[in-house]
């Protein structure tokens, strides 16, 4: 065993995942070579700590494998990353969508991030408005991808020459993916189900009974709800436990979040299900507003009407809570379970 990687704890108690030495080379010679096309002249920057496998790959394994460089920050806040990108002309960035929104705002104020050739987004779903704004402003696509500590790194990704908004792309070479129901049976194209993946890396928990839940018949059940279209592209719906069933309707929280984020008053947001006596569960949105926007009933109504106009009206957040900041893990993932526990 080369390393024990601990899951981030977005759903509760972290789990220790075991990875072999060969796994480190697999993610470098797979994702980094195939998708990123890393060259020795590249300079990596990112927000994830090296203790998390997203950061370990992007800020240590990949640059070391290909003779490139990495700029490491003790405090990888968006302002610090922007400064380091400008100073060292970083070419590849690994961070979450929240930080890319801050970078877009900084570019509006004159920041020069033109050295970036690859903006890799993972850790949280990439909202279509962020993808579209980045492409419009830089002329380059963002590389949305999904990985897992259990799988070591990203195993499904968009490509530079094959990308679209609200789409996670296709599996990295060597990996297979399918969408299954609760019984493990593959579902039809276009139907939302549970993502199952297998390939050269996989889940090996250290002395943890949850291994039997994650791995079924050789397939890793990642805990994500996806659909696969007729062309084999994968589309994220929600974490399995983030699907909201309200009055019999299945509502994917990230779709509501993307609608809210498309309004200029919204800086950040997270959607969870809130118990309701009439509907079973309702959509509750926790919203961080942009500066000087009033936190009042008129803003709530405005945002609710905006969502109704963007997506199916029944998906709108019936409860909106204004919050100063969203609870997050050190890697930038939103801790929705903490929002569910709020009174």
Automatic annotation (TrEMBL):
Segments forming domain AMP-binding enzyme C-terminal: 255-333
Short name of one Pfam family: AMP-binding
Database matches in InterPro entries: AMP-bd_C, AMP-bd_C_sf, AMP-binding_CS, AMP-dep_synth/lig_dom, ANL_N_sf
SUPFAM superfamilies (UniProt xref): Acetyl-CoA synthetase-like
Keyword flag RNA-binding: no
Keyword Ligase found: yes
Transmembrane segments: none
PROSITE patterns from the UniProt entry: AMP_BINDING (PS00455)
Full protein name: AMP-dependent synthetase/ligase domain-containing protein
Species for this entry: marine sediment metagenome
